[in-house]
Each structure stands twice: as structure tokens, then as C-alpha cells.
Amino acid sequence: MKEGRANLSRAAVLLAVFALPACLPTDGLNLDAPLSMLGGDKAANASAPAQTLEVEQANGTQSEIINGLLNRRSVLQSGPYQDVASAVLAANSRAAEADLRAAKLRSQARANNWLPTLGPTVSLTSLGDVVTGLVVDAVLFDNGRKRAERDYAAADVEVAAVTLAQDTNDRVLQGLELYLTAQQALARAEVNKAAMSKMERFEYIMSERVRGGVSGRVDLQIVQQKLNQMRADMASDQEAAAAALSELSAMSASPVTGISGVSSLTTDLTAQPLSVMKAEAEATRAVAEATVARAGFLPSLTASGNLADGGSGGLTVGAANGIGFGLGANLEAIEQQRAAAQARVGQVQEDANRRLRALEGELTSLRRQEAQAQTLAAQAAANYDIFAEQQRAGQRTVPEAVGIFETKVRTEREAAALRYDVARVDLKIAALKGVLVNGDQI
After folding, report:
1. Which domains does the chain have, with CATH numbers?
2. Integer Cα distance of 268 and 412 in angstroms
3. Segment (H or E) for 239
4. How far is it, in rounded angstroms, from Cα 392 to Cα 402?
5. For residue 61, what are the contacts with CB-CB under 8 A and spacing of at least 6?
6. Are 188 and 247 in contact (CB under 8 A)?
7. What pLDDT is recorded for position 369?
8. Across the strands, what pairs with 356?
9. How far apart are the C-alpha atoms of 90 and 249, rounded to whole Å?
10. What is the pLDDT of residues 255-277, one digit of tens each?
11. Which residues pair with 122 in a beta bridge?
12. Residue whose C-alpha is closest to residue 302's, from 55, 17, 11, 4
């Protein structure tokens, strides 16, 4: 009979501790939590496909930041850019994805922190006896500490999600910059290659004139020096293109040697910069962290029960960090931490706007330079045609014609290179706003 009454007492204590949180609505409880969080739907969770980005958080809320990431559309159209981006993403090690999954698991663990905790207790009495039991603790009032812990974990997931989006966009940008570097070097090399036969013709003419005693050897050496410089420039361009393509191939899952040309981008560049989104998520996380710290300095109410020696239970009032003479300063410091978190968002927004304005100004300047270079190249070509005609008529010397031809080649190289500089800045703007990759590809 005594053993039966002891068992009934233990059950009563356990039932009371579990029932107290349900009877007392507090800030630390979440009575609307889905059953799947309590482990009641394990089969459904096991069969659900694992997704990297999910709008539904472990605490049951909807993440606006992750929803915004998923709804982003890439500005890359079908063509060489898209081919390079696909090859680069296919070989992505996605280290940031592991951090995101870890954050999601931490958030899932925090989602159940409002439930009572169970733990064994072992003690040694003065008589040398070992007494074991089971301790049940339930937080009844904690000044919002448990809820802030869940908010912190959810914000941590959002920070990891934005970091993954940044890493993915940065990887695509790196691949496309290498591709543009190679294409730019090949374009310059093609200009020299097209002009090489004409320079070699000038060298042949000068060598014949020197042999016939019409011109001096100095004029021949000038032409040969310009020809050698043109060959050296072409070789340097080809080496630079090969190095960039080799590096691009190292970070790609498929060959990219057969890709060429430049693609146009869509005009939808209104997305919020990823750096600002990350700052907002970090601010939310910082506020939650401050709330947890603040609750640690304030009293909390906890119900506990021990299922040993017939069972016992009671209520405990205390503060995790204790209450001392510096309480006011500690609380004020926590409030300043919240204000600093919001101020950092404004600073990041300003930095992003400045960076965008700088890139837009650079883009405008490069487009002007490109148009001007095209005009100068056309003028240099027209001048060369006139000098070439006059040289054939004996009105101009070969060195004079070679000098004008060299100017023509230089302006054509500059015009060819500026096209890729414009494309590179366009891609930097898109990467800053995080629109190089579709949201469902992150």
C-alpha cells in the first residue's frame, strides 16, 4: 500500500508540473505550436523533402527575408552568361549551406524550449546512501527569455540564408568576371592578329628599301620594333586569356572553352541589396540576444518537482545573472545594444547606396568612353586609309604610315576592351543586389 501511495504521489507531482504551464499563460509559452514540433508527426517529417530555403520557420512564423530571397529572379538571360553561371554553380561546394542547415537545426531545437525539462538527479546522503530521482522543471514566467531565444534562432537562420545567397551570387560573379577577362584579352589579341599581316608587309617594304639604298636602317628598325611590340602584346593577351579560362575551368563542373560573346541583362534591378537584408536579419538577432540578456537580470518564476522519496515540488523565484548594484547600468547597456543594432542597418543601407551610386557613375563613364573609343577608332581608320593612299603615291614615307597604323590598332584595342569593362560593372551591380541567381537555385 505504501509503495502504491508513493507511486501516486510521484505521478501527482509530475502531472502538476506539466499542468502548470498550461494553466498560466506567460510570455514564455507558445500554445499554438504545431504537433510536429512535439515529435508527434515524425513519420511526416521523415518523408518530407529537405529544402535549403524554407519560408516556414521552426517556430511557426513566416520569414519575410527568406520569402524575398526565394522570389528573386536572375537578370541573366539565355546565352554565354547563363552557360557560365550554370557551370560554376554545378561545382559549388556550398559551404554556407552547411551553416544554414546547422542554424535550422538549432532553430528546431529552440522551438520546443517552452516545454518542461526532465533530468536525472543523483545525490549522496550523510549516511552514505545514494539517492536518485527525476527532476522536472517548467518555466512559468521569464520576462520573455524563452520567446527571445526562439526569435534569436529564427533570425540566425535568416542570417545564414542571406549569407548563402551572397556566397552564391559572389561565386557566379567571380566566374563571370574570369570569363569577361578571358574574352577581353582575346578581343585585344584578335585586333593585333588582324593587323599583323599589314605590319609584316610594312617590314618587308622597308627591308627592300634599305636593301636598295632608298631608306636608312634606322627606319627599318623602327618598323621592326613596332612589329615586335605588336607580337608581344598579342602573346600577353593570349596568355592572360588562357590563365583566366584555366582558373574558370577549375571552378566549373563542365568545360567552358566553347563559350564566347556577351549577353544582355534584364532591366529588373530593383531588388534590395543583400547586404541590407543581412543587416536587418542581424539586427533582429541582436535585439533577441539583448532581450535574452535583459531577462537574465530580472526575476523569473519556475516550477520544479523531484520524483524521489515520495516526490516533492515547489516554485522558485530567481534571476539567471543575479541582481546586483550594477543592474541599472546593465539594463541600460542592453537597451543601447538594441539601438546600435538598428543604427547598423542604417549604416549598411547608406554604404550600399554609396556603392551603387559609385558603380552607376562608373558605368555611365565607361559607356561614354566606349562610344568615344568607337568614334576615335573610326577616325583613326579613316586617317590611316588616307595616309596609306598617300604612301602608295609617294607623298608619305613608310614610317609615317606605320605610325598612323599603330594609332589605329591602339584605338581598336581600347574600343574592344571597353565593351567588357561595361559588362563587368553591370554584373557587379547585379551581384550587389543579389539577382545573378534565381531564388530557387540558392
Report:
1. 64-114+146-298+344-433 (1.20.1600.10)
2. 32
3. helix 217-250
4. 13
5. 154
6. no
7. 95
8. none
9. 12
10. 888 889 898 888 666 788 999 99
11. 132
12. 17
